[in-house]
Amino acid sequence: MRKKILAANWKMNFTDSEARAYLESFVSEIRDFNDDVDVVIIPPFTAIPVVIAASERVQTLRVGAQNMHWEKSGAFTGEISATMLRALYVRYVILGHSERRTLFGETDEIVNRKVKAALDAGLRPIFCLGESLHERDSNQVEEVLERQIRKGLAGVSGHDLTEVVVAYEPCWAIGTGRTATPAEAEEAHVFIRSILVAISDRTTADRVRIQYGGSVKPDNVEQLMRQKNIDGALIGSASLDPRSFAQIIHSTEDAIA
Ligand code: PGA
To answer: Is the CB of residue 218 less than 8 Å from the CB of residue 244?
Structure first.
């Protein structure tokens, strides 16, 4: 049994005081939650300490970062390392998000270096992949996903692979209001798992959690979470409202009940 994992990707939103206000409301919403689902909040770097402080009050809450550099330290102005994140008790880090790939030129090779550096430092990568609309329309989905997995996770095996959370985020569904249907998402997840089997083995691949991301909302999350190979969600826009993120957690609990 894979434990579902819900992660709020705040992207470039919220100052530290806005984060504090959000958490006050969120913590009161989730007071009655148990530990059936892993919940991760992934704020901008500047709000990490505020979310860490909240996670000390709510034991089930975990904290992530949205990016990192693959080197431990050095002359890399503007960058931040896995060691620095670990020192703050950050547990997860999003790597290879489509916005990083398309707006900041991150290649599969760069993402792979980051994945390996994160694992070396004891961080769990949330490794994102997904096809563009053009790639879907021209029937290249499987080819693109296979390339992203083989290159992005090259050299990652065994226990390390089970620490990775894969996030399937079709680019045409991110921030567009257009979600993949549960069947479309499940089909992609089954394919992703088959490639994970190919690069490792059945037992290892069966332990890797695969999240869906792209316009997940309170009213569509339950059906998505009922799919056998959908092990959670990476949520952008709908996670910016504490009530809506709490509802997403509730609906996920309903789906697994
Ligand atoms: P969205 O973003 O929920 O706003 O589509 C998801 C993501 O980019 O991780």
So the answer is: yes
